[in-house]
Amino acid sequence: MTEINLQSIKQVNRNRVFRLIAARQRISKQEIAAELKLSLPTTTQNLNSLKDEGLIEENGTFSSGIGRKARAVSIVADFRVAVGLDITPHHISLVLVDLNGSMMDHVREKFEIADSELCYGQLAEKVRNLIDKNKIRPEQILGMGITIPGIIAFDKKTITSAETLPVPSNFCQILQEYFDFPCLLFNDASCAGVAEFWKNDYENQTIAYLLLSNTVGGAILVNGKPFEGMGNRSAEFGHITLVPGGAECSCGKRGCAEAYCSALCLSRKTDNDLAVFFREMNRGKEEYRKLLEEYLDYLAILLNDINMCLDCPVVLGGYMGPYLKPYIPRLSQLVVERSTFPTDGSYIKPCTCEFEAAAMGGALYHIEQFIKNV
Ligand SMILES: [Zn+2]
Question: How far apart are the first and last CA of the chain?
Fold first, then answer.
């Protein structure tokens, strides 16, 4: 066996050990050795090198069993952190994420994005405030993932199109000037899908993520990675035509799914507040119940279209995701009636990453890149 092969096996083992500790949060050396089918000396060697670099630490003992208690190890979750910044026309969300993929802190506030030095300076200050508030040292920060409702070029820096945001195509490079850590740009729906994949056991599966917010977007995740397509704009589910010549869409065309399935279809009745819409409806407001029934009918068409193309689980995310959970049985019934092929509709999945999924996904990109190279 060549030197290079030996080195790469060592690297792979070390990475597997680190990932297992991260997944279990607390585990003993003996369990690691058994689970990864490694010898105890090899496991010890890997644990020592990870510990020496500050990536893992001892974390008490396991009390069960007889004889010597097994010592537990955990990863040092804040050894490295990443920032996620989600930008919509009137709001920003900021999250700080550790190596466990857990949200350490977050900020969501109204912010009118504009193409001005003042606006960029304020944005940078908000990022710095979050970092300072959490006492994060510069060497801990892996980078920032910025997510927007738009199409991003393959360089992960240039905006190809983002009609709802008044910023130039080099927006990411402008923000980069304010920071020493790398800033990368992503599509919001793709990142929300990445965050969903991270939180669930979808290993070796393809999933579709349907982002139902004020716009409708999506992502197709193959083994956790967004399928990019030829122009990095796959899974634009919101602009599938549902009703030829129908309602006007934000893209300027008529009859797109977004015009029938965005959260605004319901929340425009209640001053953009979905919680109020559902509360009023549950209190018996007939007009809202009918509106929701109509919404579910259109959503079922879209879900069936996606299922006919991809035949994979479809996660309902975005602002609507949490509100749609009680209506999944109804949606299943509707897609069963519509489907050409036998299905029980169980491909429709609720989202589990309900909060700041896009910003989380932006940060998780940097976390994943780091863990890949541990
Ligand atoms: Zn459209």
Answer: 23
Q: Tell me, what's the pLDDT at 313?
A: 95
Q: How far is the CA of 291 from the centre of ligand 1 (A)?
A: 21
pLDDT of residue 66: 63
Burial class (CB in 10 A: 0-12, 13-18, 19+), 35: middle
Distance in Å, CA 251 to ligand 1 centroid? 4
236 C-alpha to center of ligand 1: Å? 9
With vertex at residue 341, the alpha carbon angle to CA 246 and CA 337, rounded to the nearest 5 degrees, is: 55
CATH number for the domain spanning 33: value is 1.10.10.10
Confidence check: pLDDT of 372 > 80: yes
Residues 133 and 219 in one domain: no
Ligand 1 center–CA 246 separation, angstroms:
11
Integer Cα distance of 206 and 226 in angstroms: 10
Total number of domains in the chain = 3
Read off φ and ψ for residue 369, nearest 5 degrees: -60, -40
Specify the long-range contacts of residues 242-247, CB closer than 8 Å, at least 24 apart. Answer: 242/298, 242/301, 242/302
Q: Residue 150 burial by CB count (10 A; 0-12/13-18/19+): exposed, middle or buried?
A: buried
Q: Calculate how far, in angstroms, residue 229's C-alpha sits from the geometric centre of ligand 1.
A: 18
